[in-house]
Write a structure and sequence with these properties.
heterodimer; A: mainly alpha; 2 strands; B: alpha/beta; six-stranded mixed beta sheet; four-stranded antiparallel beta sheet; nucleotide-binding (chain B); ABC transporter ATP-binding protein (chain B)
Chain lengths: ~350, ~270
Amino acid sequence: MSALDRGVRRSRRAPLLTQLALGTGILAVLVVSGATGPAEVSPLDAGRVILGHLLPGAPWMSDGSLTRLQDQAVWQFRLPRTLLAGLAGAGLALAGALMQAAVRNPLAEPYVLGVSAGAGLGAVAVITLGSAAVAGLPLSGAAFLGALAATAAVALLSRHHGMLAPTRMILTGVALGSLLSALTSYLTLTTEAQNVFGVLFFLLGSVSAASMERLAVPAVALLAVSLFALARARALNALLAGDETATALGVPVHRLRGQLIVAASLLTGAVVAVSGGIGFVGLVVPHTARILVGADHRRMLPVTVLAGAFFLMAADLLARTVAAPTEIPLGIVTAVVGAPCFLWLIRRGRAARAGMPR
Amino acid sequence: MNVVLDRVSVVVGGRTVVHEASLRVESGRFLGLVGPNGSGKSTLLRALYRVLRPHSGTVRLAGDDAWRLPPREVARRVAVLTQESGADFDLDVIDVVLLGRLPHHGGFGGDSDRDLALVTRALERVGATALADRPFAALSGGERQRVLLARALVQESQVLVLDEPTNHLDIAFQLELMRLVGGLGVTTVAALHDLNLAAAHCDVIAVLRDGRVTAFGPPEDVLTPEVIHDVFGVRAHLLRHPVDGRPLIAFSDDAPVVPPHQEHIP
């Protein structure tokens, strides 16, 4: 087979298999997490509850084979939190991928660009000072606004001759992030002891407060930003080659960069507002997707979204089982499980770069 | 497609890097820009491929102002080989070449059979078929240049812009690249450092000094020992190529102690 055939074949088949595997994994985690918890529900029954709510008139919903408690446990508690974990993982991973492309830096992610720090300060201000201190906003609203304000500040401070300068954005984001984190730490240290636990849980991330109603905003944000990004997948590829090359290929580079930052920040804000500051996902999942299917955005973006969802859903399952009945914050699980996996992958990835088959 | 620059001035960071440059290349001809480092060659090219907007003057592609056309339309008319290689993320070679189809698609749509056929032909033409499934970042300088040229070819443009295309290339590929480009039949504008390469392959030459076009015409009229001495500050001797009779320039280092136009590189 010629090198050309191999290249074409890889670009068309590899992502399909990966997507299929991730999709299966997502369904499996949904069912297993539906069957995990204090109220006893078998995986089969968990699957039946989920299907029963989706298919009108499913016979097993009314024949008495499922108790009311089982139905509630799966549909009102376990499913929403697993779905929220999935939405948050997909959203943060996609936001990370877009930021990495926008500033052409593999280290970019919502944390590095100060977005998460802004959300954290907003949320912690509500927890420690009460929502009256932030114009009566609820916690999620304050977190969302904090994320947007941080993004706007980074964008304004890193403008150079009216354009967003990528390296400046990263440095500005890191500096502003430190400043905001310092304020958050101060608020945490000076607040009453009973608030500290809530602060830590928000800063490290948790989806335990999920309900079906709270899924709507992050779901809409994820869908909108996914469509936006996929429609520009080729232009994102051109951005990887450099600003001049992208311009020469007809891409309006500065406008696209601005749009990407805004889209990624809105998505991050929408997610962090309901799930807290879950770290690591935005940085690591996009790179994992690149290692799996290559850096072409037409292939890596769908894999990034699916892998982000799968990763955080599995992490949440671990977060509420390993130390049951106590729950561990999600951010701790993502880092403890994710870091070793990722370290192993990048060593493999380096081998691939040296010309070994991916 | 002809390319006309009409009194183009470009200001970068408050400094006028190109002063009222006027040039004209007819359809299918090869224009070489020569001049010392910092004389404004690359900047002039950037005004042509829409990276730096001219402070004044116009760039016309087949009569249309390049800065009034939509960016994508300019990309369909002009393909560029920049000096930028950019690669912290790895795209495979085939994906890099497929980027050349961007001005014709945009968006998510898959690659058509025609896209792949164009890529196949372009890779054959530049002798890089065997590289198709390699990561671009793992290639040598010369291999990269072949791949980037293939990308420019699949863009199917009528104008080709090359910014010092032979930098870091071995002599065999320098000659191969110039022959390849010359054989495309498209209007070509190239910044070149090697005066002999320019003399051998260009139909017209523009000499830049301190951002101004100081000489413009066929190589034999422009690349004279006087002009070369004046612009580069070195002594040049005009010879004839022993095989094809083209002008050949030899340099000697008995240059004056203080070159007449010494550069100031900050």
